[in-house]
Amino acid sequence: MLARSVLADSPLAVALPEGLSPRTVGFYLAQDKGYFTAAGVAVTLTAPSGDRRSLDTLVQKKVDLAVELMPIALKRREAGERIVHVAQIFRKAGMEVVCRPTIDQPADLKNHVVGVWFGGLESAFYAWISGLSLNPFGGPGSVTVLRQNYGLEAFQRLQSDCATTFSYAAPLEFAAADIPLQGLKQYRYQEIGQATLEDGLYAREADLAKPDRVAAFAAFLDAARRGWQLAHVSPKTAFDLLHADPKFASVDPAVLRQAIDAVDDLLALDQGPMGKLDPDAYDRTVNLLLTAAPDPVLTRAPAGAVSDVVVKAAR
Predict the structure, then answer these.
(1) In the chain, what are the domain boundaries?
(2) What is the CATH number of domain 4-92+197-313?
(3) How far is CA 311 from CA 148, 170, 215, 220, 259, in A?
(4) Which of 56, 81, 172, 291 could form a disulfide with 76 if both were Cys (CB 3.0 to 4.6 A apart)?
């Protein structure tokens, strides 16, 4: 890895999936505590607006790195975008289905409406339903699939009996909707064994052939690890940073702490430093994307979609 003096405060723009939130707080802690500067990189954190994704700015060369869900990234790569996974942020998956209390076991999904995310994120659901020997195509005795937007609007309007969300988003979303999360049934794809990998760090393929870029990316990863480790050992520090933001100032502290704890669970830092990709989790993700949906997310196994050059260069 290049020394800090050689990096000379390399400028890096990094697109996160959203602004300051429990999902991203480790990156913002690294910025707030000066860890990026200490590592020799001048980092600008950005977030997409509207319905844009963090990868949009990466492929448009407006940023140098992006954090994104793996199914979205692999779908984009198959479509021709030369992006490569260089580090895994979340070791475990947080996507889940939250259902009304009457659905107290998965088999009870029959004859109910389930809100499902599409656009590359539907594979885990179809694998789950297939494993339950349920028909996901509607009609008597089957599960009716509702294409769900992010948020709980359909669930609130009683248009669906279950909503897709993330473990870290659910406490905030249901509290904002004034729906007690306690008593609802939560089905985590990670626990079911049908999870696809979520937040990872992505770079443009061409940049990985440049030693100075790889060194800067590794320095970013080093500093980001410190930020997330701080959130792990001192959740109050993460809470204080979030609670000081106007967006979270009025959130029930217990709810915000629940969201922070949920993210920490996904990082699973007690199992090792953030960044290394679990090959078994990757293979499971690819297999689900190839086989688990009526219209598969991927049509062929990815080639060259992951690289460990940045993780190896990190300390």
Answers:
(1) 4-92+197-313, 95-190
(2) 3.40.190.10
(3) 35, 31, 10, 11, 28
(4) 81
* Placement of tokens 């400028």 in the chain: 11
77: nearest Cα among 195, 194, 216, 200:
200
Other C-beta atoms lying within 10 Å of the C-beta of residue 253: 10
C-alpha pair distances (Å), 266 with each of 17, 92, 167: 16, 5, 9
| Structure confidence by residue, pLDDT tens digits, 160-194 | 999 999 999 999 999 999 999 999 999 999 999 99
Closest CA relative to residue 118, chosen from 95, 148, 151, 97: 148
Residues of the chain with pLDDT under 50: 1-5
Model confidence, pTM: 0.95
Provide the Cα torsion 260, 178, 194, 16; round to 10°: -50
DSSP structure class, residue 185: E
What is the per-residue pLDDT across 119-167, written as a single tens digit (0 to 9) for each? 999 999 999 999 999 999 888 889 999 999 989 999 999 999 999 999 9
Question: Architecture of 95-190 per CATH?
Answer: 3-Layer(aba) Sandwich (3.40)
CA distance 310 to 221: 8
Q: Give the other-Cβ count within 10 Å of 303's Cβ.
A: 7
Distance of CA 186 to the CA centre of its chain: 18
Q: In angstroms, rounded to a whole number, what is the distance separating the alpha carbons of residues 85 and 74? A: 9
Q: Which ranges of the chain would DSSP assign to H, the alpha helix?
A: 4-7, 25-32, 35-39, 54-59, 70-78, 123-131, 153-156, 170-176, 189-192, 211-233, 235-243, 253-267, 279-291, 309-313
3-class SS of residue 200: strand
Output the CA–CA distances (angstroms, integers) from residue 47 to 113, 224, 240, in the order listed: 32, 16, 21
What's the token pair of residue 252?
């029930």
